[in-house]
Predict the 3D structure of the following.
Amino acid sequence: MNETLRSDVLISGGGLVGQTLALALARHGLSSQIVDPADPVATIAPGFDGRASAIASATWQMFEVLGIADRLAGHGCPIHAIKVSDGGQAGELDFVTSPEDRALGTMIENRRLRIALAAGLADAPLVRSFMPAEVANREIGAHGVTLTLADGTRLAAPLLIVAEGRRSPTRDAAGFTIAGWSYHHHAMIGAVAHSKPHGSVAHEIFFPSGPFALLPLVDDERGRHRSAFVWTVSEKDGPGFAKLGDRGFTAELEKRAGGLLGTMELVAPRMTYPLGFHHSASIVADRVALVGDAAHGIHPIAGQGLNLGLRDVAALAEVLVEGARLGLDLGDAALLARYQRWRGLDSLMVSLATDSLTRLFGIPGRTASAVRRAGLGAVQRLPALKNFFMDEARGEAGDLPRLLAGAEI
Ligand SMILES: Cc1cc2nc3c(=O)[nH]c(=O)nc-3n(C[C@H](O)[C@H](O)[C@H](O)COP(=O)(O)OP(=O)(O)OC[C@H]3O[C@@H](n4cnc5c(N)ncnc54)[C@H](O)[C@@H]3O)c2cc1C
């Protein structure tokens, strides 16, 4: 019989959220074992994840504490302004910071993030990764959790953290109640090189057919200006756009961008993601905690999904590290209840706000558009409201875990 390998926690799912959590725990002396069926070499290959993420400034502060920001040096493009418009009407609402001020966020290609996290894990002796590996059996008992892998290896810990993304099978098997719906929209994503500089400005343009975002990236090694795009179209139109050749697709992109960035050229494979909303009523159960997309999934309209997951990471790490210092069992129900109280409401509020925004901007017709423009204009004219939205974009609102304030736990 194989020996049982023990750690402080088990993490099922080694995506961006699961790996960051393992690093945050290791930094504070807690060991973890990550299990994921994905091949780690495949997950950092160029065509695997073509997305880029807007990392809020609070999340970036956590990356600094965890040593991830150093590994991303030169790859992050600061966002100094966000311009929001209804149907491409310029200058309706803009959030602008001065170049000396802290950025609203940083754009990073997910592949760069994955490479930085993998390098961080390679230097973290308290993290053991089982990737690719399948779980053959899962026992969640009164005193701990044991995972038996397909090759017979047994892993045990007092707590199982589920970071398996949207379709998490462990979450579903554990009986968590999930509310969810489809937006019947697809997001087409990719990156373009363009003739005009982006000036570190992110553009969010709401068309009746769906939002269109242009997000600044760092120039490439040839000095070409680059931006990521997230272009949302209805489910029925998605396949048609997917069939367009690169030239036709680029012409459509330029049309939507309205000349903001000049002429464009695709520089990364295009990918399409179906968009939906889901939210778990609870994020903890006996000896189990959910983090990231396993707990909640939102529309990418405001670029908050990964940030929400990384806020889960910061809060759960703080709860567990403090619990360990008090000598508590890390699967203790009171500890998990603290995590639930801390993250349950915040993630629900952000999720619902994002859902409302998606619906509001999806209503067709001139009256709806006039109401939206009035709303954008009102925010533009009210500094207090504007600052509130800027704090939200920076991820600095609410009861911030220490890591997100740039401090050790
Ligand atoms: C088009 C688009 C644009 C986006 N843009 C942004 C943005 O700008 N900013 C932002 O904050 N967020 C953004 N998001 C959201 C963000 O990408 C997700 O919230 C984030 O990737 C979730 O990370 P995760 O680690 O929780 O899940 P995932 O990335 O889905 O990782 C889950 C991991 O679990 C593994 N797994 C699956 N099943 C099992 C199993 N049975 N056992 C063990 N492991 C398993 C998978 O192999 C994977 O490695 C965007 C999303 C989309 C679709």
Observations:
- DSSP finds twelve helices and 22 strands in the chain.
- Residues 12-18, 35-38, 51, 53-54, 135, 163-165, 169-170, 187, 189, 230, 273, 292-293, 300, 303-307, 309 surround flavin-adenine dinucleotide (CB under 6 Å).
